[in-house]
Amino acid sequence: MAQEKPLTSAISYTVAKPVPSWHLGLVLRRFVPWITVLVVLIVWQAITMLQLIQPFLIPAPGDVLNEAILVLQNGTLWVHIQATMGPVFAGLGVGISLAVALGYCIARFPLLEDILSPLIIALQSTPVVAYAPLLVIWFGSGPNSKIITSALIVFFPMLLNTVAGLRNVPPGLRDLMRSLRATPWQTFTRLEVPAAMPVLMSGLKISATLAVIGAVVGEFISANAGLGFLINLARSQYDTPLVFVAVLTLTVLARLLYSLAAWLEYRALYWQRHGRYLPK
Amino acid sequence: MSIIFGAQDATVDYSVDGWGHLPALGPVSFQIEAGQFVCLVGPSGCGKSTLVRLLAGLQAPSAGLVTINNEPITQPSVQVGLMSQEANLMPWRSVIENIALPLELAGMSSSERGHAVNSILPRLGLEEFGNAFPGELSGGMAQRVALGRVLVASPDALLLDEPFGALDAMTRERMGMDLLALWTDLRPTVLMVTHSISEAVLLADRVLILSPRPGRIIADLHIDLLRPRQLSDTHSLRFGELARQVRERIQQS
């Protein structure tokens, strides 16, 4: 087999040398995403300057910036950010804790899955947007309905990830804990939680962005504050720069929340980062 | 405390849905004396691992009895150390933390644990790797950590289910001799499952041979090679004779 290997593969092996971190290609790669952002901004500016599209459909970047400075200075943006992000964090907390608790019970007692599966499947298949009006009727247009839409949208991915994570605990490690006479609590804290952590953490990253969607959905139906409310309000007044400001604020907030989740994952999965261990 | 393993007509049947009963093991009866090193050989699928699980208290026999010091085994015992072909290390724990696990579960304080683990690391050839994570270790080193985790609790008996089965031949020989040295010092009762006839003859006082599934003991050979034993013993005439006997019994089954 070895002799039949074509010469080209031997060449590609010699080319694949480790690249030093200061290599020009790597430096460029770090900047490429920012170049994309810059190009989008330039195209946007060009479209508005050449008046290819009506300004009330797509306002100029400068107008959006002025609007942003205005609502930042008079404090309205901050009020709406708080009105959205408060329920987002509350929804994340409620949704994740309920999902992890129920997920643990389901992984532990498979009968529970059979009992609850019609409800879970029905709720999961129905878009949250569809029954969000009901939630507003039941819980009012204040933060509560936003918290609940946010929690509901987070609940299912987190539940599935919890069940998957706990079911993926290696049977050999379960036997090990049994043979060492571990108590159920010891098995939970020292085996099940850390073994499920990678799957839980990817669930958290999904949930972080979904929670923002949930809160905005709640605000679209009915609300008296929040970025979703602001978008609705600005749209009804054809204030497109303000719509842009609110949308881009949501983009930044959701991205920050995702980064926070990714950072938590990075911290929690410290053991995956180790390369080859070199003794001192 | 020393440990004597026993089995009286121990049998394991698995009931398979829509299939009926699948006899997996036995009936087997034997006794392993305190401090004895016994190897268990037999064709694959004959129930060797099942027998280990019975003695480890991880599984109950369908019929018959398994005992430790003449008491029926109802649950795992902390005096019995279990090691299998997979190292079964926790990837999120460092080498030291993995070895310390049995002590931690027993409620030992962290300073005492550190002391116990540090005293055992040199014996395992791991003193430089205490802070490494399992993902960074070779197969042989991972197995050493698993062995350390068994030894740190100073068990009176070891149940070893093909502990070196996944290692290369050279590492395997070295690990076998290391195990033998540890056994000479500490004298636990050992039951070790192996596929290797020469490993069984080199290490054991007694070799039990199981028949194909459902495994029954078809031979119980006394290995009268002098101790301490060395790798070079494998070239002796007596060794060759004993290995031939084991092989013949397996082939007759």
Explain what you see.
- The complex is a heterodimer of chains A (280) and B (253).
- With 280 residues, chain A is mainly alpha-helical.
- Helix content of chain A is 79%, strand content 0%.
- Chain A contains eleven helices and no strands.
- In chain A, α4 (76-108) packs antiparallel against α5 (110-125), α4 crosses α10 and α9 packs antiparallel against α11.
- The radius of gyration of chain A is 25 Å and the shape is globular.
- Chain A starts with 6 loop residues before the first helix and ends in a 12-residue tail after the last helix.
- Chain B is α/β, with parallel strands linked by helices and 253 residues long.
- Chain B has two domains: 34-59 and 74-79 and 157-253, 3-Layer(aba) Sandwich (Rossmann fold); 86-154, no CATH class.
- Helices cover 35% and strands 25% of the residues of chain B.
- Chain B has helices at residues 48-55, 95-105, 110-124, 139-151, 169-186, 197-203, 237-252, and strands spanning 5-16, 20-32, 37-41, 63-68, 71-72, 80-83, 157-161, 189-193, 206-210, 217-222.
- In chain B, the strands form two sheets. A six-stranded mixed beta sheet of chain B has the order 6-7-8-3-9-10, with helices on both faces.
- Chain B starts with a strand and ends with a helix.
- Classes of the chains: A mainly alpha (280), B alpha/beta (253).
- The A-B interface holds A 170, 172-173, 175-182, 186, 190-191, 194-195, 197, 269, 271-272, 274-277, 279-280 and B 56-58, 75-78, 80, 82, 84, 86, 88, 90-93, 101-102, 104-105, 128-129, 131-133, 135-137, 153.
